[in-house]
Amino acid sequence: MRHEDLFYVLALLNAEGVGNLTAKKLLEHYPAPEDIFKKGSRLGLKLPSNNSISKDELFRRAEAELAFIERNQIAVTYYKDADYPEALEHCVDAPVLLFSKGSFNFKNRKIISIVGTRQATALGVEFTRQLISDLAPLNPIIVSGYAYGIDIAAHVSAIENNLTTIGVLAHGLDKIYPKQHQKYAAQVLQNGGFISEFPSGIEPIRENFIRRNRIVAGLSQATIVIESALKGGSLITAQMANDYGREVFAVPGRVGDTMSQGCHQLIKTHRAQILTSAADLVYQLNWDLQQPSKNRQQQLFFELEPTEQKVYDFLKTSGKEQIDWIARGCNLPVYELSSLLLQMELKGVVCPLPGKYFEAVI
Which residue stretches of the chain have pLDDT < 50? Predict the structure, then answer.
């Protein structure tokens, strides 16, 4: 985006009462953002100049923000740019501008959002770590809101597994909130980065977290809720993902657990699919796994665990089979078999087929 155009878009977004939807209508009508301030009033459109904030003040703020962007090497992505995140592009209320710091590329990547309560339990944190570890061979981007609890557990686990992780912020890139998470910022920048729709100086007030949540939901192919009470930001994010037509998963907990009630409600009302392992996610999203070479497959054959060997031998004898029949033939519960088959896929010794069928790789 041209420096001059960015200046006028920044000025437009600073105007009171001009949100992303209004700004997009004006920007569609006037391909040159400068014309919004020069010609718009002739057509009777409600313009920033009709606002309580003067045009000079809007321009002063835009100039200050441009200086901040250049001084701090902030990347700015316009909603019409080719590198604007494709998934977010399809959301009607997506931000006109995204401010980012770090290094990442969303194109042709598997992207999931992981959210949950700020009062995470040890079980919730451990499930988050195990899930991300199991998904690591697929190299997904892990998106979350950089908050306490499940959010920061997801970011840290992504870093531990050398995955790209994106923290979506509810404030400008001039600060880190909460301050206690400043210690993770450098690692996040090395393994991905931060995104915000807010210019510098914007504080993390309540309504900004709600706006942040729609970006968390919109960036991803699926949103996973790990622990949530009956009310909270995680359920708002899940609802936004539903509204965008994205997949939503919820992790069940023990009956009566306060921090699982929100997940149970999502599952019970069919607003989320149940998720008990990485295998559930891979199957429901129909993610293809790249198979290793034949030499690598033969080498891995000798590294199979006894139960994996049992499943492999069954498939070699029976040919392709549905997961229910594999479970019966190998005397394994389906939930355990699902996770086992995922690990065997990653090793390149079984191949998933449509209709929940699997076959051994020869």
Answer: 43-45, 48-50, 291-301
Among 180, 207, 206, 169, which residue's Cα sits nearest to residue 74? 169
pLDDT of residue 143: 98
218-266 pLDDT per residue, tens: 999 999 999 999 999 999 999 999 999 999 999 999 888 999 999 999 9
Q: List the 357-360 sheet strands across, edge first.
A: 321-322, 357-360, 350-353
Q: How far, in Å, CA of 292 to CA of 232, rounded?
A: 43
The pTM assigned to this predicted structure is 0.81
pLDDT of the residue at 41: 53
